[in-house]
Design a protein that fits this description.
The chain is mainly α. The chain is built from 9 helices and no strands.
């Protein structure tokens, strides 16, 4: 019994250390960018030894990868939940679009992290690819599967349509929030969501004629 308790405490402690390191790493990446961050700086920010950081993460790229994947899981679950998407397309598409924009726009840390990722993608393309693989790809797959499940929409290419839908929302978020353009190109998010939903639904209706 004692050994079981000790093992549980050790696991809890290890999880806490990882979270501590990830929080410290996020602060450093947001402050100094990827190139300007070192494992030494992460250790100081996290309040742990450098050896502790390396005991959980092999290198800086691995640490950054875990941060991206963690952020991706969090955003995906907030937008899509944990169950398959079901429901009437006009309602589901509007709800998904609303949750997507709210999730991206209301998270200051997410916006700052995306600026770092975009800024560093030229020198470190593998980091951007991690984002595409862990954040964008699952989202496109979920949207594509939903659109395929409703043949009455008469969408000839659900995958391309999913890219158009996601691309519209991401473009809007980047121009408005990430690039500080909302005062230059003011527009309410629900107008964009209503417009893209209308295009998809009206296209389906016109195909029936």
């Amino acid at each position: 019994m004692t050994n079981t308790k000790i093992g549980a405490v050790d696991r809890d402690s290890s999880v806490d250390k990882v979270e501590q390191i990830l929080k410290g790493a996020m602060c450093e990446f947001l402050k100094h960018g990827y190139a300007g961050t070192s494992m030494d700086k992460v250790a100081v920010a996290a309040g742990v030894s450098k050896a502790t950081v390396y005991s959980h993460f092999q290198d800086k790229e691995g640490l950054f990868k875990v941060l991206i994947e963690k952020l991706a899981r969090k955003k995906f679950n907030l937008i899509f939940g944990t169950e398959p998407i079901v429901g009437e397309p006009i309602t589901v598409l509007k709800d998904l679009g609303t949750r997507a924009l709210e999730t991206m726009n209301n998270d200051q840390e997410h916006r700052a992290f995306m600026r770092v990722l975009i800024g560093e993608s030229g020198r470190f393309p593998e980091l951007a690819q991690i984002c595409v693989r862990s954040m964008i790809k699952p989202t496109l797959e979920a949207l594509s599967q939903y659109l395929k499940a409703y043949p009455e929409l008469n969408i000839p290419d659900p995958e391309a349509t999913a890219r158009i839908l996601l691309g519209t929302l991401v473009y809007f978020h980047i121009t408005q929030e990430v690039m500080h353009g909302k005062d230059i190109l003011p527009m309410a998010g629900d107008r964009v969501i209503d417009a893209i939903t209308h295009l998809i639904i009206s296209s389906a209706k016109s195909s029936e004629l």
